[in-house]
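Format notes (please read before filing issues)

Several people have asked whether sequences and structure tokens are stored in separate files. They are not. Every record keeps both together, in the order shown below: the sequence lines, then the token lines. Line labels are part of the format and must not be stripped during preprocessing.
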Amino acid sequence: MSVSARLPLAALFALGFVLAGCSQPQQQAAPPPPAVTVAKAKSQTITDYDEYVGRFVAINEVNVHARVSGYLAQIHFTDGQLV
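Then the structure lines:
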């Protein structure tokens, strides 16, 4: 096929694409809104905490042993104090 024979064929395809692009888009009907249930909001007091029964178990253990034998004469600290 020569170049002069392809030119009308190419022009025909180009015209077809142009005409196809110029058509009005079809208007689609909007889908109906979905059915939902609603409730009015009401104000009420809520509890931000709760109490549960539980048990704690230590991950690590320390055994304290005296290096000498005898009795304590005085205690120079209180429970919970940093020593």
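For reference, the curators noted about this record: The mean pLDDT is 83. The chain is about 25% helix and 0% strand.
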